[in-house]
Amino acid sequence: MKSSETVLRVLLLFRLISSDVTLDLPSFRIIAPQNLCKSNGNESQSQQPDGVTIAFQPKDGIKLIYQFQIFFTILEPNTFNQRETLLVWKAVRALEELLNGKERSKISQENLALIRKSNVMAGVSYVFHVEGITEGGETTPEQVFDIEYRDGVLQNVNVPEGINFLFVGTEEIVANMEYRLIAKVSFCLPKYDYYFEWIIEDLQEEYKELENTISSCLQIPKNVLKAGKRNIIEARVMENKTKRLLAKDAIEIKVLTKGYQVMIIPSTARVGEGSNITLRLFIKNYDEVKEISILWKCVGEATKQELKSSMPDNKEQYFEVAFNKVGSYEVWAFISINDVVSKVKADIEVISSIFVSYDFQHTPNLYTSANEGFQFTVTVLNLVPLCEAIWLSAQEDGFEFIKPGVLDKEQYGYTKISNLEKYYLEEIADFTNSTVNRDITLTIPAKTDLWHGFEGDSLYKFRLDVTCPKPYKDNSNSMVTSREKEEEPWKKFLTSYFSFDLHTNSPPQVLKLQMEPLKGKAMKTAFSFISASAKDLLLDSPLSYEFFIKADDYEIHFEKYFEYKTWNTKLPYTLKQSIEYFVEICDVRLACSVIRNTTEISLEYEEFSNKQLQEYLTEIQTIFGRTDFSEGFNTILMISMTFKNGQSKHLEKWKMFVRQFLAQEIDKFLERPQEGIYIPDNDVLQFVSKCKENLKYLKINNKILLQKLLEILEQIVERNGLSLNERFKRRIRTKRIVNNQQQQKLLIETHLSLLEDLLETSDLTVESQMEYATSILRLTQQMCLMPLKGHENVKRSNVHLIVKKLKGHALIYNTQVFENAQESILLNFKVKNADLVNQEKLYCLAIIFLKFPENMGSLQLPLINYNVYEFNDNWSAVKPVECRQKIENFQLHIASATDNNFNKCAMTTSVDSAFNLNAWSFDDCKAKPYKNYLLCICNEMGFLKMDSLYLTTTAATTRPKTTAAITLNIPTATAAEIESRETSLPTLTSSRESVTLSTLATLPSTFLSTAARDISNMAKPFHTSTKQPLVNTLVIRIDKLKKTVAAYETDIKEKARHIDEKERELAKTQNALDEQREARKKSDDVVTVLESQLQAKNEEIRNYEMELSETEELRKTIMSLMESKRPKRKA
């Protein structure tokens, strides 16, 4: 690529399309004045306010020096004479001088000003005008607040004395982010009976439900607030019983217009003639998408002749092109979002001798965080033996480069199709096609010993190189014989590639977390945690700050704030280890950094009095009453930890309260009409998760509660009507949507965890297993409907799930692998009748691997459920694909490598039958042993199991429905054993003669599987003879097996060679590391010597300077003496 083209591409990648070009000035906001509650030393007596604090919140954490100008007015009905007015004026000037002089640096450092009662005069309203001045001399817009002092009460107009009302939230947001605004209220006198009312200015009617929030946290989903507009949000604190207004405050929100960023994948590719390739866009949009149109064009690079284009009003973010002619092509995408246009280009090269093509199902995040790992999977199609595929970091101008050896081949997804697989494909002709498809995964870890991680705010280019042998031309003029083709079939190699660009996003730069005090009592002392402001690009603001702790192997998360960095909380008592403290800071592109403070806080345990316990019980009930579930569950868990570790006398009483209280709250969720109160489903999901967590910590195992929690989870999905494809949503919905991948993952994990707990509480009965399997099937169907990017791969103790959304062309031939300590299972789904699958239609593949505990008797064998679903017209439900009944339609091949000597495959399509051993059918799955594998060839989808059954003979005249009367137990023989045995066959004169296991062991597996099939298909007695054609067939078979063994040996030698190379590379790396360590040690020694020499030289210089100074003084003295003794001239 030319240098100018590289610069152009870099500019396109970094371009930020935005209509907001105003200069961003420094600013700050004033948080509502807070009352200081002065304690008189007795905790049982009430606290009295002594003043107010004014908190300032600078934008982006900049440092400001605050300049105060104070005005005053006399409050009616007070009247002051001239002398009293002069005294007020002097008091105001004294307060102004105090804030601008003595306390100025402290206010700037803490962003906090204290106004004491002793600084003000009664009967006066004070109006404060405040400006912020940056270190560079820039001045912020002026902010104004007022405080009244009347009848001994010092208060803000909207917040009475004795109430602290803190409005936490940023004033500038982007439309495409979830906005959280938190109203924190506290009272100098204990008070719990209150709730919140929210008013959002200019809120559209379809979102009015948000104003029914009664919790302290207002959650506004993405794109509710419109870009370029301002909204005023008001919060009111209301008394529960009287509906009396206690306090209120408001904040003005500005929704910024930031535009969007776009990238294309692949950016370059080389494919074979006749290949289809799908290009996709990655669009990172910060604003609400009102109108979007994408025009795709494919043109010849030289001729600019158009090969294919999309409709002008197209909205699809993918474009499939068939390249049927050799040449170079350009694929352009012209994107118009909200009338702002951008364009990106991909370069495609087409070569006739290449037969490899590429496909990928999901677009990764091409603006990944620099401190996180990255993973991307591309399917390489039409691979043949000796093909090699590997990802590489491309070294081009304008891109960062990862040097060779920093990451290993496994991380670059190295794959080679060996000759062994070629023989394997010949050996089992029905198992697959002559070519194979492989998923090649690029896995870049966050950090290793040699890999320091991505550079921040940089560009990387990764290229998937696939090298395959060039096939011979099958023509009469070819000089290569068929024998040469067989022995050495490939002479030349050709390389194709697939590349994409990756932009890394630097996470916020963090400093430290301060804590005070460092000593206190568990769940009694209030601790303050203050995070320093993080640094990040203006593009990535606003930043969110979330504080959490780790105690007793549990993570307890507190509030997440935007731009606000202070948390006040109490801490639990622990025994095992000290509590760890963290703050996670994230930008709007979800790049996150974590501050960890290892300072140990000394916590003492002191038993609760009955009054203190009752206050906590009342507080928890009122917290749940206003739906602040996160705060309530944190309080419950921390008290549980404190009582359990402190061996409190209240522990049993506390357990009883938690069990009864949570049971009541769960019933409220199931019975509440949900119309008068708005509770987002994210909060409901957190309720279920935290409820289970608290029950588990206190070891409260209640089957009824678990079933009710599961019912709440299922209601979430039913209420949402989750739709897979976003383009079918004509507008963004707000109704209780589980709206991000993290929450969707939590939904799945919580669902599976509840099912496992229910299974354990039921003593693992057959009925409970049936319920478990039914619920798992229902969950996989729900997962198909979730708008998840990428396929889900979930592992639990009893189940392993794979759910993938695939287009028809990827489903026709699909391979999945289960790997764990006990089993290695390969599943291959092959549609033989291509007309049954729409190539462009989306399908959902769901695979379930069930393994119950060992004490389950006959049900301890693994069960596999395989299903393919298609979606209905409005994407609201799924149904199994109707391609059954005929083996000509499709085949499901399942190969299992186990030590159980399985030899039969059984299938059932219903859950009930899966746990009824008499209902399994052996007709739908044919068993075919191969080496250490048992291959099941099925023409049904449903539950599959493998078993070990024994051969018995019967003279029955009709074939039974299942093969329970005619079964077979075939010990699996290795190729080496078969080769070592004699090739002569035993003579079987009659089917009525007994067949022993030793006789069966000498038979090849194909003969036995054929015999088994013949037994099941014939109604007459079983007869076998040893005719010459069969001997010839077996001789050919043995020759093939010898070739397979030879291929194994070759492959083993090659693997051994690779291992030797790896060991040599490791040894070289170790030697280089040792040399570097030795060199560093020598360098350190040299540095130490040089430092000591430098210190000595400095000492000498100082001595010289002292001598020089003394000499200079001596010179001056001599000159003075000489001057005094010189004779004076006569006038």
Model description:
The protein has 1131 residues and is an alpha+beta fold. Among the domains are: 28-36 and 50-256, Sandwich (Immunoglobulin-like); 259-352, Macroglobulin (MG2) domain (Immunoglobulin-like, Sandwich), CATH 2.60.40.1930; 354-422 and 434-472 and 490-495, Immunoglobulin-like; 508-606, SOR catalytic domain (Immunoglobulin-like, Sandwich), CATH 2.60.40.730; 783-949, Sandwich (Chondroitinase Ac, Chain A, domain 3); 1045-1115. The longest helix has 98 residues, at 1028-1125. The chain is globular.
Write the layout of secondary structure elements.
Elements (H helix, E strand, L loop, with lengths): L2 H12 L13 E11 L9 E11 L6 E10 L7 H19 L3 H7 L1 E5 L7 E10 L9 E8 L2 E4 L6 E6 L3 E3 L4 E9 L6 E7 L16 E4 L9 E10 L5 E12 L3 E6 L2 E5 L2 E11 L6 E9 L5 E4 L8 E6 L3 E11 L2 E12 L5 E3 L7 E3 L4 E10 L4 E6 L21 E2 L2 H9 L8 E9 L14 E11 L12 H6 L5 E13 L7 E4 L2 E3 L5 E5 L12 E8 L2 E9 L3 E4 L10 E7 L5 E6 L4 E3 L5 H16 L3 H17 L5 H21 L9 H17 L5 H18 L20 H21 L4 H20 L6 E4 L3 E9 H4 L1 E7 L4 E8 L10 E9 L12 E9 L6 E3 L9 E8 L6 E5 L2 H4 L10 E6 L2 E6 L4 E5 L27 H6 L16 H5 L3 H13 L10 H98 L6
Parallel strand pairs: 9-14, 16-22, 24-30, 32-39
Antiparallel strand pairs: 1-2, 2-4, 3-5, 5-6, 6-7, 8-10, 10-12, 11-13, 13-14, 15-17, 16-30, 17-20, 18-19, 18-21, 21-22, 23-25, 25-28, 26-27, 26-29, 29-30, 31-33, 33-36, 34-35, 34-37, 37-38, 40-41, 41-44, 42-43, 43-47, 44-45, 45-46, 45-51, 47-50, 48-51, 49-50
Helix pairs in contact: 4-18, 6-7, 7-8, 7-9, 8-10, 9-10, 9-11, 10-11, 11-12
